[in-house]
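[job 4471] stage=fold_predict status=RUNNING
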Amino acid sequence: MAVISGALRVYCVSEEGREVTLYRVEAGEICVLSASCLMDSIVFDVLIEAAEDTEVCMIPSAVLHKVEEENPLVSLYIYKNATEKFSEVLWTIQQILFMKIDRRIALALQEEMLRRKSSVLSITHEELAGQIGSVREVVTKTLKYLAEEGIVRLGRGKIEILDEERLKMR
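[job 4471] inference complete, writing structure tokens
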């Protein structure tokens, strides 16, 4: 899949129903980890959803294989993209295993601020929990603490970053 506009969220779901975002695919990028037909070594299931209004171009694997045979740079591009996305997956796993929840939330909020170019984020606690691989209750409790500290302001379906510097220090 090649994302023409918008963004995709690639995630997995545990047996208990907990979601964790593995990575995002933005406009101009390709989503190769969803194409296990291209990479025999991929043996896990991922789910993909549009994170916003998104237009994608589906490239059949037979067509892509033919293009790769004719132009080795295409194979190199796909390999490079796959290694970058695997790096993001490993970073996500490292965060879940070794980082405290307030730091994971702070990093996710900073990333959203950069992506949306705004300090007011239209995101629910449930969505944030899915991004960082936690549960809504824990995210809500941590966000309330950050609000009491004057770092964020919480509203219905939105989080406003009040003190970006203190958020970075979390």
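[job 4471] summary: The first helix runs from residue 61 to 70.
[job 4471] exit 0
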